[in-house]
From TrEMBL:
<feature type="transmembrane region" description="Helical">
    <location>
        <begin position="269"/>
        <end position="296"/>
    </location>
</feature>
<feature type="transmembrane region" description="Helical">
    <location>
        <begin position="363"/>
        <end position="385"/>
    </location>
</feature>
<keyword id="KW-0472">Membrane</keyword>
<keyword id="KW-1133">Transmembrane helix</keyword>
<keyword id="KW-0812">Transmembrane</keyword>
<feature type="transmembrane region" description="Helical">
    <location>
        <begin position="308"/>
        <end position="326"/>
    </location>
</feature>
<feature type="transmembrane region" description="Helical">
    <location>
        <begin position="7"/>
        <end position="26"/>
    </location>
</feature>
<dbReference type="InterPro" id="IPR036259">
    <property type="entry name" value="MFS_trans_sf"/>
</dbReference>
<feature type="transmembrane region" description="Helical">
    <location>
        <begin position="231"/>
        <end position="249"/>
    </location>
</feature>
<feature type="transmembrane region" description="Helical">
    <location>
        <begin position="101"/>
        <end position="125"/>
    </location>
</feature>
<feature type="transmembrane region" description="Helical">
    <location>
        <begin position="201"/>
        <end position="219"/>
    </location>
</feature>
<feature type="transmembrane region" description="Helical">
    <location>
        <begin position="405"/>
        <end position="425"/>
    </location>
</feature>
<feature type="transmembrane region" description="Helical">
    <location>
        <begin position="332"/>
        <end position="351"/>
    </location>
</feature>
<feature type="transmembrane region" description="Helical">
    <location>
        <begin position="46"/>
        <end position="66"/>
    </location>
</feature>
<feature type="transmembrane region" description="Helical">
    <location>
        <begin position="78"/>
        <end position="95"/>
    </location>
</feature>
<feature type="transmembrane region" description="Helical">
    <location>
        <begin position="487"/>
        <end position="505"/>
    </location>
</feature>
<feature type="transmembrane region" description="Helical">
    <location>
        <begin position="166"/>
        <end position="186"/>
    </location>
</feature>
Amino acid sequence: MALIKKGSVFTLVGLYILTIPFFNALNVTSYDNSQLLGHFGASTTAFTYSTYIPFFAMLGFLPLGLKIGKQIPMRTMVLWVSFLSIICNTALLFADTIEWFTIWRALLAILSIIGIFVTIIPIVLKYNPAFNMAILYGIVQFILQGSKQLYQYFGTQMTSIHNWTFGIYFLNANFLLAIVLAWIFYRKDVAPMKTVFQFDWRGWLILLFFLTVILFLCAEGQTRNWLSDSKISLAAAFLLVLVGIYLIHVRFTKEPLINPDVYKFPNVVLGSLLFFYTGMMNGTGSIVTGFMTNILGFDSIYVARTHLAILIGLFIAIPLSTYLLFKRIYLATLWITGFACYGLYHIILYFRFYPEIDSSNFFAPFIFKGLAIGFLYPAASLYISEKVPKPLGDSRMMSGVISRAVFASLLGGAILGTFISNMNVQHKTGLSQQLSELNTEARQQLEQNKKVFMLKGLSAWEAQKKAEKLLLNETFQSALMLAYKDIYLVMSALCFFPILILLLFKLGRRPIGSVEVEPIPF
């Protein structure tokens, strides 16, 4: 590996710092949903759409953002994207309805995609020959995953000073810093990857329709009880129709958005499956957040601070996995280690779902989660890029994004919410049936609660009703925790299952091969 000159280290660090605000445009307000819901007074359904739409806007604009990022001079692009991001971000402060808030936030998400591409390109062009792709990608993942946790924490801290608007000011300060860094580190205002602009507009339109249907399923599926509702069934059927239309479209397009030829490479097929699997395993984090806020009563700062333990695992695993990939370690070694860490994360938390648990009990499982991300994400992203020719690079990237972000994280998260609700109802029904005169413990608890309320001055009838309600609330919490335990027990088994497959069939017993395309970190 060629060595980087000492004088360019400062430039390299500056270029990496320049990427951070765009990676985290949507992370600053991650834990402030309750404040936003109260501020706008929107319905739950409207707020659900408001949460999903910016992420789908980001994913939908991703392929066009990649093309634009290569066509316009880099310094001009960074300056304009940063300036427009400040405008869209500031407009959030003046949005008087949830609809306008969603529109400005979606535009901010789109701008962040362009910003990510245009800030990554000079790093890839200037340092890839010296760095080796494994090291380059390891550094990007280190910054991406680490800054996500930090921005969620800092955004929550800023919000706690006054309200959610302080997070907006914090993000604006970051975009102003990006403008300053662009003037310092972009010496020449050129577009080094500029080519004749060709874009699959028809394929992009089909993709947007596809993502719109997925958005509808994510936002409405749980409330409509999925396929038992005719509109959900129709939407699912329409997805299959869109896939068929796209396959017909590909036959008449020279450079389609997602070229099916990319699936002739076995590593792209298996890599997409691995992306889906890791996205699914990582998606259960919302359960822990719900457990902290809804049952344990943690505020947003406490939740964000507790999640910082993930950084410890990331700081250990990503540099170590990057070094091992560079030293040609077997892929199976990293995969087995990552899946084992995800399994330990789920199985430890399985025993943590009980009331009045302290935040220190989340320390160990969150470290294992950070370790799992650090071992699996760089290896998976390099593996799916292995031996893929550059003309199919964008197709490979979109395949991974759709597998992990669309199907696993967004749609999978919505389906997971339904499973939790259904299991919660089953457990609640079972526990409620035990609240009878024959249940000595329940009767004693009811009498004890009734006496407490009577001592507070309530009448016997009022105290009886309060005591019954309190007992039912305790039953609801117990049912919900049992549902959480069921999910995490199943997920721990699913995490250890790939290890068995890798060992039985002796898969991945080789180092990473050649990587020619840029493994853009999504």
